[in-house]
Lipoprotein (Polyangium fumosum), 361 residues
Amino acid sequence: MNPRPLGGVLSRIAATALVLGACAREGQPQPTEGGDPQAPAKATPSAVTATSMTPAASAAPRPAPKELDVEADPVRRELLHAPIKSVALVGWSRPGMFGVTLERRDPPRLAPALLLLALAEHPVAYRGSLAFERLARALGMRVVPAAVLRRIGTGELGALFAGQRDLRDYLSLHAAVQNDGTVDALMFAPGRGDGPGAWASPAGHNVTLDHSLEAETWARWAASPDPLPGERTALLADYVETLVLDYLTGHVLRRAVHFDDVAGAIHLTDNAAAFPSKVDPRALDVLLSRLRPVARFPRGLQQALLALDRDHARDLLASGPFETWLVSPRTLVDLDERRKSLLTLISARVAERGEPAVLSL
């Protein structure tokens, strides 16, 4: 079949927009961590669909994003409130990471979870993972397990580690204790979703994103305008979600994803390197090389990206006092530029083949 000239032009325009969106902008004023999050930042011109209008100032504050309402989600509610019954170190190679057992209330039963304690050496190491989970939830994506920030008292920690003297002594020296006597901890579910499956540790294996048969198969599915024989739509949607999230967050250090062989699903659990303060353009090019050929996207992605304007992203990731921000103002600017570039790519695909064919996963 001969390619249509218009489609080829639009594809080149979309690819160019992605590259431009990834380039560092030399000479522009850079917001700092202490900068005003309300200050306007320059962004790359983009397609009409990617343009967001700044609403006029209003005396009434905007409501908090629904993604911040932990109590509305049953899994995150349990992660935040369920008593911790036991704790075990995952491995000394990850000294702050623990496997825990929670006493769930709805329904009453014991369930596994993972806990990352803040250590003095890296007191805010949880921020990238938590920001990644919030962004995935805002975009309606399924590949990231639920996560919450939970503050645990030193007395509770001492009781949990009472029979593990080495760990107790280590944490007494290295835990990042706040002024109120608590330690920040990222608590996250072992599995994905909001149902019973969230509490089951997935079977399976890790799949490298470069030079593995599985990843090459997924990439071939994603690049095809039409479903291929043997294609698994839900798994393909997981793969595209992975590409989108890593690109938006500048997560250039991911080498592999966990693949659940039984459910045929991807789990993104190693997200600590998301939202770096600076991204090497060459490393970002690797993410772009995976994303540019994608021909089909999840159905609700375009609308979710349009809704994620800079104000929404700031409310989601950097609202409240400075010490509670998960990302810096400069990082929010980078996120917004990549969001607009991705919208340009999707719009070009829709112009080529129509919305039903492109937003079909």
Q: What stands out?
A: The beta strands are 84-89, 97-105, 108-117, 147-153, 182-188, 205-208, 256-260, 265-267. The chain has a mean pLDDT of 87.
